[in-house]
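Posting for a labmate who doesn't have an account.
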Amino acid sequence: MELRQLKYFLKLAETLNFSAAARDLFITQSTLSQQIQQLEHEFGQPLFLRNSHEVTLTEAGQTLLPLAKETLHAADNCQTRLEELKNLMAGELNIGVTFSFTSIMAETLTAFLRLYPNVKVNVSQSYMADLMERLLHHELDFVLAFKPLLGNPRIESRPLFSNRLAVIVDERHALASRDAISLAELQRYDLAMPRRGLQARNAFDRITAGTGYRFRLKVEMNTVYLLFRLVRESNYVTVLSESTVVGERGLHAIPIVESQAPAYTMQGCIHLWKDAYVKNATKEFVRLLGESTAYLKNKFEI
């Protein structure tokens, strides 16, 4: 069995079409068919069912699929380590970031690319659940997001900083001069909120559950940028983490604090494969992240 054959197998499993897979691999269809047959002969059982209409994975093929991905990922790690030993920084860095972390990443990304122009950086912004799934499939090197309520035994969440849940208003809003606000007071204002599934919204729903408060929820969005624009151009308020408005002009964050209780906090983390090799590029990016944001506390070496 060769790594090349596993790559061919994965591409065919992805496309379920010999012609399309061969085209993507830049080989002939007969070469692909021959290599798959050799692999099936070595395993002693078919990996694909073929007929004139379709190609499907057999039970053996479905079993091999995640194992092949793991094997090729391990092989790529070997190459990555050797390249980094030779060049210090090389290859690609694949970062997943939730909406709340986009603003704090901008400065770090600029600084990283200035220092390491030979490293290609791919940034994916999405919901935490989607990013964690992509991390588990080795599509991302790390994810920047708040700590989830339920962890995954295959993922290590390393704390970077603690961040308060806050009411976000335009700097001209009547609340802009406040240092804190309670949930009871928040009932008086029209809310434009992130949709359920975003981490700040999940945190807000969690702390308000069972309180009996009735909030004037007027708008829900899954785009933080539109929330910012609405808040700037109206009297609406929203609830996000303080870190979300770092570098955003004209917006003010007011921590939500209950009497005789501390502010509601969310722990910002870097999420990686547990006990896995961490790229030098990842370490350097996190170092720059800590240096570029003044409020980042309790930095951890990785």
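Reply:
Got it, the structure tokens are right above this. The chain has a mean pLDDT of 87.
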